[in-house]
Design brief:
By secondary structure, the chain is of the alpha/beta class. The protein is 59% helix and 9% strand. The protein is built from 17 helices and seven strands.
Length: 326
């Protein structure tokens, strides 16, 4: 399930029994884990919301003791509320013990029993920085229909704007809704580019209590790429300027040079034989030369790719001139 779908469950008051929050986006995980408390009326949270830290459960005995704490918290009946929320932080220590022992084995057996028969009046939230998806506990969570949430996945514009606001708030400041919208419009739904744009914005507005749309305009990068194949299409049409512009958008959006070279290689292999069979060989040689130069760090990747794009476009224009003369 996506984070936005989980938020809808929380807003509707219809949570599942067991969640695993994982992924590389620590801020997203932390924010989402905290939002589960909204399932409980504010005045009753002290009795029905419990946070357990598993970071120091590094030995079998500590793990066994910690699992006992989790089970006791999950099996406790809610007080004057329809449910309890138990959140286990650093749960990778719980789900993937570093050391094997009889105590660790007993701890995992007890945890399995809880996951196979979760308490119907408790929502158990496991927050893990990373977890082996081939491991026994992950497979058990899947088998028992636990809700696995990959944090760091952005679905749409609204989700991206909320993501921006969350990161800005975590830095101790606020951002105007229009500024967040502009940042997302420019950066698109790519998490890496959004993160880079927000980091630049926070640095630019260091010390400000609130970030305005003017601040966002001052640092926002070029419009996000909307068509991954616009560059190759421009080369086919011999539009050098447009091809270079699309190349710049791809690089600015964080596309790896090797991926872009792969697209150009695909273009030469699949399209050039039909467009101009006599020019396939020099085009292949140009792609091969660029590949070698990238691997040897023989120049800036941007410059090497720009040179290749210009060569491919020039060959296309020359073919068009020859056809016109003929």
């Amino acid at each position: 399930m996506t984070p936005s779908a989980v938020r809808k469950q929380i807003a509707d008051g219809t949570p599942d029994l067991v969640y695993l929050l994982t992924g590389e986006d620590e801020l997203e995980k932390s924010a989402l884990a905290a939002e589960f408390a909204e399932l409980i009326e504010e005045g009753l949270r002290a009795f029905n919301v419990e946070r357990i830290h598993a970071a120091d459960w590094t030995s079998g005995e500590r793990l066994l003791e910690g699992v006992g704490t989790v089970i006791a918290a999950a099996r406790t009946l809610p007080m004057m509320a329809p449910r309890r929320v138990v959140t286990v932080l650093q749960a990778e220590t719980l789900l993937m013990p570093k050391r094997e022992s009889d105590a660790a084995a007993r701890a995992l057996e007890q945890l399995e029993s809880l996951l196979k028969a979760p308490e119907p009046q408790t929502t158990l939230v496991l927050v893990a920085s990373s977890i082996d998806k081939r491991g026994k506990m992950f497979k058990l969570l899947q088998k028992q229909n636990a809700t696995i949430v990959e944090c760091g996945v952005i679905e749409d514009q609204a989700d991206a704007e909320r993501w921006v606001r969350t990161r800005v708030a975590a830095a101790g400041t606020e951002i105007d809704p229009q500024a967040a919208r502009l940042l997302v419009t420019r950066a698109g739904l790519d998490v890496r580019r959004l993160r880079a744009e927000v980091d630049r914005l926070l640095l630019y507005a260091l010390g400000q209590a609130r970030i305005s749309i003017d601040d966002a305009k001052a640092i926002a990068g070029p419009m996000a790429l909307t068509d991954d194949w616009a560059m190759t299409n421009a080369i086919e049409a011999a539009q050098t300027g447009e091809a270079l512009r699309q190349l710049a958008l791809m690089l600015d959006a964080g596309a790896p040079p090797e991926k872009i070279l792969g697209q150009l290689g695909w273009l030469v292999r699949t399209k050039f034989p039909q467009l101009a069979p006599t020019d396939v060989r020099p085009a292949v040689e140009a792609v091969f030369r660029t590949d070698v130069d990238l691997k040897r760090s023989a120049g800036e990747p941007r410059i090497l790719l720009e040179r290749l794009v210009v060569e491919l476009c020039a060959g296309k224009r020359a073919r068009a001139v020859r056809r016109g003369a003929w």
